[in-house]
What does this fold into?
Amino acid sequence: MKRITCILGLLISSLGFSQQELKLDIADALVIRSLEFSYEKYISVENSFGISALFNLADQETAFRYNENMMITPYFRHYFSADAQWNFFGEGFLGVNFGKTNSTGSDVLQNYTDAALGVAVGTKYISKGGLIIDAYAGIGRNLFGTDSPALVPRAGLNVGWRF
It folds into this structure.
């Protein structure tokens, strides 16, 4: 019984600071025909973790598009100015990406799966009513595949809601 009470107490205390955010990357949706959704959970006033899912809707032949057809990106953010409406943050991420590339120089596209480790920086505006706007940019490097692109961009302009 003591173990159950202890575990329940730890669970409740970890959920005590439970600010969460849902966001949509509007720049990707409007400019390059892709959808990126994000969920972020704060573990303290200065730190959060989240996950993003990118789905590329543009045709493979389009001149300007991400190489990735899909990318799942767990990330950790540290906020440097937690008490202001405008917050500056640094981010570390691991992006698992899937796509098609032309690494051999021929016309044949090859499927690839890889994971990129990277960093990003950005800023976030939080209104008193819960509206969120954040902008960030960064870059990661694919670690495992030989057919995948060497670098993976991470950039966005998100609009969302804090609850």
The radius of gyration is 18 Å. The chain has a mean pLDDT of 87. The longest strand covers residues 110-126.
